[in-house]
Structures are given as structure tokens and as C-alpha cells.
């Protein structure tokens, strides 16, 4: 006959969510745009309402493509400049306590035969994961970034002149209707066509002929929509707009707040094309490291303006690819940012940031955490540590499977390593060690003092880890299927045993077997026998019940 189970009950409700009235919080992100001429980094606080705030910026002129674009290879000195720039960016971001990094590589790196070697170095030396993106993807992200500052209700041509490539995006009624990336960047075309200073009439003509041939599709699509406005982004377009502003614009207003008549723009472009390098260098609107390339950029923009008679105005946006990357990050992580906003406690927020970053299996982790903390409360009278250890158990349960990101085999050992090295915020080193070891011992051999990590703890701490890991093993067994089959528990603790009765959505045998099979460490650590049986339990409990509303508010969604 089953013993009376009046001691405690827990309902595991899938719809239960984190409940909090805490103010909104943010995630600090470092976004790095690895361009051909320069690396741009912005550090932002991404907010759960979809907005973001820039904390700091850094631009490093690296000129990766110098003497290497046509050879499809990054020169050794360019790779060294790039690595030094990334180190400075990483140092700045770490100083701002950036929690996440998003790094995209564009034309020079994605086209170079040794671009993969550069990406590998960045990962090994700095821990940065750099993702090379296609030109079309780059164009779409540029549109996402610029759309934060510009009105695209009417047909416009968005152009981003980079060092290796140029992205062209036609936007109509706030929609990206055409985008293409062409290998017409300022560094690339300068290296290929420009040998004279000032730019000779012959070389201007050769550049113009090359651009006309390559731009045929862009010009045809733009004429079909009778484009009236060209909007530029990134350094070359900003410099050309500032040259125009110096001659014709309002010096009291930002370049980004002005729209320049196309006739004024073309006059300014003629000056750039005819000026010598020393004259361009002396101009306050042109950066020194852009002096030798801006002539080709001016010919490109002038070719566009000449080929589109409907264009009336040219303007520039302060945003570009990097801001588009931020928008993409927020869109991709909106649900996570919403959940992070509910956590005032930096410890809880830090644990969840790591869990999301390492691709946790959320439903399983939440279910195991809910069950483990329920069992902890049940066994509190015989637990040989402080009541606050329930928090460490919960966090260990949330992170116990993150080692799957490395490999399935021995994933518990990888989980320990990741927890130890995740730079969790707000924890003492002793607490991190105990969480890491509890996650480690959720499966496999029992804790052993010969294990160097476990052996560093005091005997009292070792016993706490045994008990926490014992509870975690039982909780893990109760979701062995990873389908949250167990929907409710009733339990009774006696001097001899812990009795668990399970109510399940489906066949209970796997969870009954797994919990019983994994109960050995619990029995050793608590000196109690574990008995697990299936039963039917009403969805709502009374008396000594631990309700979903109180327990799950901490343990989260099952």
C-alpha cells in the first residue's frame, strides 16, 4: 500500500512563466564590422523594447585589401594590422563589460583564400567568432541599419561604398525591393585603375566605362522606379557629402540632417576627381587614410547621378552595416531580451544570458530546475548546508546540459568547464565551483576526492555538492525523455526513505525507471532510500502543497 503523501506536492505547469515587476534591463553587445578599409565596432545596450543605446564606438583603419584584393589574398602585414585592431576593440569591449559579441566579415575576408586563417586566429587568440557574410546579406543588413534613420516611404537608392564592394539597395514604401553587391569598392577600383595624381582624364574615363558596364542592372532597376533620392552610408559617402557641405551646405547643421541638390553634389565630386592627393589631404572633410581612394568613389557616385536623370537629391545616413547588425541581433533575440528584462538580480540574469548564448534546451532545463528545487525544499531538514544553496542548485540545473554545445559524449564535463569559465556575474568563486561540480555530477561516476576539481573543496563543501548533485540526478531522471512528461509530483520524506509519486502526460515508465536508476547518489548523500512510482494526481493541490504559482515563479517555465 502506498504511504500517505501529505507532505508536499508540486504541479509542473508548462504555461508557467517568470513573473516579475522588475524594471526593464538590457544586454550589452559589441558589434564588429570587419570591412576592407576599416573595422568598426559599436558597443550598445540592447533593450527589450527593441531599442538600443550606443555606449561607445571605435573605428580602426586596417586597409586589409591593400595590394591584395586582386590576388584574393590578405597580405601578412594587413593580417597583423587586423589582429591588432581586433585586440584593441576587444580590450575596449571588455572594459565596458560587453556580454555578447557579433562579428561579421565582408568583402576582403570573405573573398581571400587565407580569410579562414584570419578568422581562425581571431577565435584562438581572442575568442571572437567571426562570420563571413555574403554581399546580399550585407546589403540587407545595411538597409536594416539605415532604415532606423531615414524615411523610405518614397523610392530611394541606398548605396554603401566600401573598400572591396559596393552595396546597392532600392527601397520602395519601406521595403527592400532590390539589392545587389558588386565588386566596385573604392580600394579595389583604385588599385586596378588609378596610377596618376591628380586622377587623369584618361583614368577617369576608364573608371567611368567600367562602372557603366557593371551598373547596368542597378541603373535599369532604378530608372524603372524613377528614383529621386540617393542615400549613402559608410565612410566614402560621408566624406563626399562633407565635401559638398563645405562648398554648398549649412555648416551649422550636421551632414546627416541635410539633403544636397544633385547639381551641388556633382560639382563637389568634380573637385574631388580633379584635386591632387595633397589637396585632398588638406581638406578637413577627407580622412587622411581615405585620400588615395576617394577619387574612385567620386567617379562611381558621379556615374550613378549622370545615369539617373530623375535623381534630385543626395543625402547620407549615420547608420550602416554595424547598426543593421544591432537591429538583427535585437530581432533575433527579442524573446530572450524580454525575459532578461524580468531579472533584477544580476546573478539570475547572468545565468540566463550564458544559457541562451550556449544554446540551452530551455524547456528541459526549466523543468529539471523546477523539480530539483522542489526536492531541495522537501529535503531541507536533512540538507547539510545553508538554505540559500537552493539557488545554486537551480542554476546548476539550468546549466547542466550546456556542454552539449561541445559534444554529447562527456557533456557533463564540458558543462563544468563552461560554468567555471563563463564569468558569471555576482557569484563568489566557491559558489561557481559548487554549481559547476553539481552540473558535472548530474551523470556519470559519483563525486570522488581524487577528482582535482572536487578535491579542492573542503569536506563540508564536498558533502553539499554530493547532496546537490544527488537531487539534480533525480530531477534529471524525472525528465529523461526531455518531453516534460511529468506534470505533477507528490512526495513524502521519512527517516528511511523519500517516496515520489508521478503524474504524467503519457507512459510514465521511462521517467520512473530513470529517476530510480539515477537515485544512487541521492541515497548515498542523504542516507535515504528512494522510491518512485506512477500515480494520478489532481491538477490542483491543497494543504501542504507547494503550488505552481510560488514554486514556478522562481524555477520558471517547465
Low-confidence stretches: 1-7, 13-24, 539-558
Total strands: 15
- Name the strands of the widest sheet in spatial order: 9-8-7-10-12-11
CATH topology of the largest domain: Hypothetical protein af1432
Number of helices, where a helix is a run of at least 4 consecutive DSSP H or I residues:
23
Radius of gyration: 30 Å
Largest sheet: 6 strands, mixed
- Give the CA-CA distance, first to last residue: 31 Å
Q: What characteristic shape results from the CA principal axes?
A: elongated
What CATH architecture label of the largest domain applies? Orthogonal Bundle
Highest CATH level, the class of the largest domain: Mainly Alpha
Q: Taking all residues together, what is the mean pLDDT? A: 88
- Structural category is alpha/beta
* Beta-strand content bin: 15-25%
Written overview of the protein:
Residues 1-7, 13-24 and 539-558 have low confidence and may be disordered. Helix 4 (135-146) crosses helix 12 and helix 5 packs across helix 11. A hairpin with a 2-residue loop joins strand 8 (166-172) and strand 9 (175-182). This protein is elongated. The protein has 558 residues and is α/β, with parallel strands linked by helices. The protein has 23 helices and 15 strands. Helices cover 46% and strands 17% of the residues. It has 3 domains: 8-18 and 342-555, Orthogonal Bundle (Hypothetical protein af1432), CATH 1.10.3210; 27-133 and 325-332, ATPase, nucleotide binding domain (Nucleotidyltransferase, domain 5); 149-318, 2-Layer Sandwich (Nucleotidyltransferase, domain 5). The two termini are 31 Å apart. The strands form 3 sheets. Strands 9-8-7-10-12-11 form a 6-stranded mixed beta sheet, sandwiched between helices. A 5-stranded mixed beta sheet has the order 4-3-2-5-6, sandwiched between helices.
